[in-house]
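Dear Dr. H.,

I hope your travels went smoothly. While you were away I took the liberty of generating a structure for the chain from your last submission, since the lab meeting agenda had it listed for discussion. I wanted you to have the full record in hand beforehand rather than looking at slides cold. The sequence, exactly as received, is reproduced here:
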Amino acid sequence: PTASACVCNLCASREAEIVGERDRHGAPLRTVICRSCGLVRTDPMPEAAQIDAYYAREYRRSYKGAARPTARRVLRALNVARDRLERLRPHLQGRRRVLDVGASSGEFLQVLRAAGISAAGIEPNEAYSRWGRENLGLEIENTDWSRADFPPGRFDAITLFHVLEHLADPVGALRRLGGWLAAGGVLAVEVPNIEGTCGSPSGRFHFAHLHHFNPVTL
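The corresponding predicted structure, in token form, is as follows:
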């Protein structure tokens, strides 16, 4: 056990145990598990300014290997987006306005639009959000959940696909997003499962993933 440099975002405990000292590339990165609730997180958490700069300009290049969307990546993302819509379709019946948080270059928004659903997105990466606006004509604001300004009850559904694990304050983000939902609105969240066995353990930790969830902590 060790005293954590920061409190757990879920239960506010400082009691933690180190589960990793390196990222998937071998660079120093300490990861701990909360001994109270089991939430896994980076420790210490990077400063807000460092996180903001990373996601605005560096994340797509370091994590995806390209500063701007490639044709192959867009096609793959479109296929994933179509599958997501099929899984969510029963929950989106009658939903007039959808917000996609972490919209990337807009593939899910494009699929929603093709299905006749009005949708907007927010995306902190400058190049990817610009690509979606300029090439697909989508409504993607270059911002994040903490800076976006929407009136209460604006959206009937909000989606976060592989976004929550990138946030330093996932609980705060969900509280803020909840305020943007209309009564009876739908919140759809998809994250990697830290207990999953489909990948190599050596590739589990990365600077971009600040929290790691299992079904219980999610």
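Two observations you may find useful: The chain has a mean pLDDT of 93. The chain has five helices and ten strands.

With kind regards,
E. W.
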